[in-house]
Specification:
Layout: E1 3-8, H1 14-32, E2 40-45, E3 64-71, H2 76-94, E4 101-108
Parallel strand pairs: 1-2, 3-4
Antiparallel strand pairs: 1-3
Helix pairs in contact: 1-2
Amino acid sequence: MPHLQFDINRPLEKADKIAFAQQVRTLFAEVMDTGTDHIGISIREFGTHNLSVGRVKEPEKGVALVNADIREGRTLEQRRTLALGFMNLLHQRWDIPKAHMYVTFTEHKGEDFHLVEKYLAGWQQGEDPLADLEKR
């Protein structure tokens, strides 16, 4: 169950957050070759000067910090594609300059991710970790 956390230094509209979360789920599933039902997303809003990246001189234009807790096994290419995809979505939705963004990944064993029904197994290409729940 990836937990994708987006910290943004401005107030956001509810409809934009809902649409953004759906775009993020779709992007993650495509790039990471998995389903969408197990993807957790946090979108947190902060004041203009409550987030900082050293090279950002004009935080009023926007700052976004992204942390993605994911299962082990994805390639560097997948992670890089996802990071750039997050940046594109943030830029398109809220016009945050890409140079004002910072994305980090933290990798965990599948067994570190728990739902009420089960914990997740390690990632496998093309898998949907909740598919077996639909059969019950």
